[in-house]
Amino acid sequence: LPPVPPAAEPENRLLAALPAAEYARLVGEMTAVPFAPGDVVYYAGGPLRHVYFPRSGAFSLLAVLPDGAVAAVGSVGSEGLLGLAAFHGAARCRTMTVCHLCPCTAWRMPGDRFQRESGRPGPLRELLHRYARALFDQVTQSAACHALHTVPQRCATWLLQCRDRTGGDFPLTHESLARMLGVRRASVTESARALQALGLIRYRRGRVEVLDAGGLAAAACPCYRLGRDDLDRLA
Ligand SMILES: [Zn+2]
Predict the structure, then answer these.
(1) How far away, in angstroms, is 146 Cα from ligand 1 center?
(2) Which residues are paired to 108 by β-bridges?
(3) Fewer CB within 10 Å: C terminus or N terminus of the chain?
(4) What is the CA(25)–ligand 1 centre distance, in A?
(5) Segment 63-116, tens digit of pLDDT
(6) Among residues 222, 203, 199, which one has the least CA distance to residue 212?
(7) Mean per-residue pLDDT for 9-35?
(8) How many other CB atoms are there within 10 angstroms of residue 223's CB atom?
């Protein structure tokens, strides 16, 4: 199970799939913005002033409950777009959106321009429809995952997904992993220890290295392979 090879130059795959002239026209007026893990792109219920096309790293879509509890319901990297609700006419973002993997940069486009560009028939609109279906599938799968799969399985899946997005080792704290999975920190610590004891990962100074991707995939829930197949189909 080799990691998905990172692109030579980080780029957003939706934009890269556009005809060259269309790509140049859209990117020419966008700003490259860096993010660090923990940076909040949108607060739940916050305005969608801009949309972002990630070029590297990854962001979590977090459902926020009235008591403040959160759980990740989706993940977006260079295959996608942050602020997709704007494509469907929404002025506000329902999920909190947080950077969770670096190095992370994204192209930023003002929301009103995005509404105009994505509103007219053309390749961008087609790509966004396709991506919206893929993200809906991902969130559907994530709902089943939360209900049916164990914390150790879900930890293994999450770690593999992080590895696939970075192509190497990556920073992670038990707090952030627990937050993403919507579980207690103690259960995450226990799961990470077990995976390390099996020689599948190494966790050192806040960074995780996957030592045995095949073994980790065997410990993961089926959502890992399903998600990876979906990403391959989008590519
Ligand atoms: Zn699962």
Answers:
(1) 7
(2) 31, 52
(3) C
(4) 40
(5) 999 998 888 999 999 999 999 999 999 999 999 999 988 888 999 999 999 999
(6) 199
(7) 93
(8) 21
Are the C-beta atoms of residues 157 and 145 closer than 8 Å to each other? yes
Give me ligand 1 centre to Cα 142, in Å: 7
CA–centroid distance, residue 92 to ligand 1 (Å):
29
pTM of the model: 0.90
Ligand 1: distance of its center to the CA of 72 in Å? 12
Token readout for 17 is 């799939």
Distance 160 CA to ligand 1 centre (A): 12
Residue 143 CA to ligand 1 center (angstroms) comes to 9
Tokens for 201, please give them.
């990962």
CA distance 175 to 183: 10
